[in-house]
Write a structure and sequence with these properties.
Elements (H helix, E strand, L loop, with lengths): L2 E5 L3 H13 L4 E5 L12 H5 L14 H7 L3 E3 L4 E5 L4 E4 L4 E3 L2 E4 L24 H10 L5 E5 L3 H9 L6 E5 L12 H14 L3
Parallel strand pairs: 1-2, 1-7, 2-3, 8-9
Antiparallel strand pairs: 4-5, 5-6
Organism: marine metagenome
Keywords: FAD, Flavoprotein
GO molecular function: oxidoreductase activity
């Protein structure tokens, strides 16, 4: 029996694990993620904040039980990888466990950049990636009057569109000259930028 270990429980990691099982049911597939949940897109979180999507449940492709019971994936949530031995073919986690593999697939996704500023650890400074943390934040948004979003990357742009829908005065701080300047030309972003400023008051 071939053993596959997938590190990362986002869309890529979950899709890889389920596709492997669907291709060959004899495979022993283990998926390891540091978070409590898998198979959701952080990019959908702002749409719940803005109430375009009514509940966080709408961001999940399937419940955890589907992947464990229906797909037969050895799912390890809230588990952090601390080492990989390629020659031995093993993954080591902080809880002392060892997961041998014939194939290792890394799907760890993106990591947010913590700004090199004072007081970034204050209670009002939040980072959007973990959906459980986003649920806690959502409960607090009804009492938020003003917000500053740092970086006009895709998730940041989604946030500055969502927050005004909750009657939150929203500001954007970014080093670029226009929205998503790393990914798109200014003329492409101009209509969106005008909408955010003129219609939503960002």
């Amino acid at each position: 029996m071939k053993r596959i270990v997938v590190i990362g429980g986002g869309g890529a990691g979950t899709g890889t694990a389920t596709n492997a099982i669907q291709f060959d049911r004899s495979l022993d597939v283990t998926l390891i993620t540091e978070f409590e949940d898998i198979a959701y897109s952080p990019c959908g979180i702002p749409y719940v904040f803005g109430r375009d999507i009514k509940k966080f449940d709408g961001l999940f492709l399937q419940p955890l039980e589907f992947y464990r019971e229906e797909m037969g994936i050895n799912l390890k949530t809230e588990t952090v990888v601390e080492g990989i031995d390629i020659e031995k073919g093993a993954v080591y986690t902080t809880d002392g466990e060892e997961y041998p593999f014939d194939k290792l697939i890394l799907c760890t996704g993106w990591e947010y950049e913590v700004p090199n500023l004072d007081n970034v650890d204050l209670d009002g400074v939040i980072f959007i990636k973990n959906i459980r943390r986003a649920m806690e934040i959502d409960d607090r948004l009804d009492n938020v009057k003003k917000a500053v979003v740092w970086q006009a990357k895709p998730l940041g742009v989604e946030l500055i569109e969502a927050l005004p829908k909750r009657d939150i005065e929203t500001h954007l701080v970014d080093s670029g000259s226009w929205l998503m300047s790393e990914f798109a030309d200014a003329d492409m972003m101009e209509p969106l930028q005008s909408h955010l400023v003129d219609d939503l008051g960002v």
